[in-house]
């Protein structure tokens, strides 16, 4: 039986890896290629449905080409597991995805990413991502999609947090 206790450091690393995926999914939803590519290491590999692309520049080019075909793409991460070993880690994610292409065709997907991570200059990045579709089906999205605007950077200190909290009450 696996030991269920984790150190504070392990939990902090897991939270940071979860935040990396949150940034990735948010960037997909907002079609923000600069924020999206910031999630990847320079020498990363992206295995997309059996085809591997290597290097940050090639990965970005593929992402931008793919996104031109979508009116919107929404990724919702769910179950995940991580194994952290110093400055490297492995893990996987299950996702729900909802898309509508430029022709108005909607789809609903369940997918899985298997990941290798690397910590560079104190920040976790995707070193390798392997993507697999588990389910794909038609979805009726007859309403309008209202893309969100980017939020400002997260607060850096407690004064910023207090000011943000006060503004939220306005």
TrEMBL record:
<dbReference type="InterPro" id="IPR032710">
    <property type="entry name" value="NTF2-like_dom_sf"/>
</dbReference>
<feature type="compositionally biased region" description="Polar residues">
    <location>
        <begin position="154"/>
        <end position="170"/>
    </location>
</feature>
<protein>
    <recommendedName>
        <fullName>SnoaL-like domain-containing protein</fullName>
    </recommendedName>
</protein>
<feature type="region of interest" description="Disordered">
    <location>
        <begin position="148"/>
        <end position="170"/>
    </location>
</feature>
<feature type="domain" description="SnoaL-like">
    <location>
        <begin position="14"/>
        <end position="129"/>
    </location>
</feature>
<dbReference type="InterPro" id="IPR037401">
    <property type="entry name" value="SnoaL-like"/>
</dbReference>
<dbReference type="Pfam" id="PF13577">
    <property type="entry name" value="SnoaL_4"/>
</dbReference>
């Amino acid at each position: 039986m696996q030991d269920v206790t984790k150190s504070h450091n392990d939990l902090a690393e897991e939270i940071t890896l979860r935040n990396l995926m949150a940034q990735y999914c948010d960037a997909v939803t907002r079609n923000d290629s600069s924020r999206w590519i910031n999630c990847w290491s320079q020498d990363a590999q992206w295995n997309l449905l059996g085809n591997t692309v290597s290097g940050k520049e090639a990965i970005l080019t593929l992402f931008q080409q793919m996104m031109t075909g979508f009116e919107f793409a929404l990724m919702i991460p769910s179950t995940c597991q991580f194994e952290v070993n110093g400055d490297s880690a492995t893990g996987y994610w299950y996702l729900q995805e909802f898309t509508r292409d430029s022709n108005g065709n909607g789809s609903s997907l369940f997918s899985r990413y298997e990941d290798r991570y690397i910590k560079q200059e104190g920040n976790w990045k995707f070193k390798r991502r392997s993507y697999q579709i588990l389910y794909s089906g038609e979805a009726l999205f007859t309403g309008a999609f209202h893309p969100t605007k980017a939020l400002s950077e997260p607060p850096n200190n407690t004064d910023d947090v207090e000011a943000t909290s006060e503004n939220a009450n306005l």
